[in-house]
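Protocol step 4 of 6: structure prediction from sequence.
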Amino acid sequence: MDKNNTREAAEKRIEELKGYYRHILIFVVVNGLLYLLQTGVLNSLLPEAFPKESYYYEWITANILFWALILVVHTLIVFRHKFTFFKKWEKRQIQKYMDEDRSKMDRYK
């Protein structure tokens, strides 16, 4: 890999990380505010016409859970190179089957 490709790969990785951290920040801020709204902490700051009954905000818990699931998927994508278990498992399985084939061939020699 030449120097330009290495730099481009590093820049792409930095952009992925920036996007991921931005996603976490937005998740925390938006869902934090929604949670405060749901628990009634923000009721004193809301206009009079704004509904304050808790049943208006039952959807917030589902929203937080669904968004958290999306954030987990984003984490797995961004840090995919850190999860080497699958690659190691695949190499072990390939080696295992190659060894089995080799032992079968050796029996018939």
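Step 5 (inspection) to follow. The chain has two domains: 3-78, 82-109.
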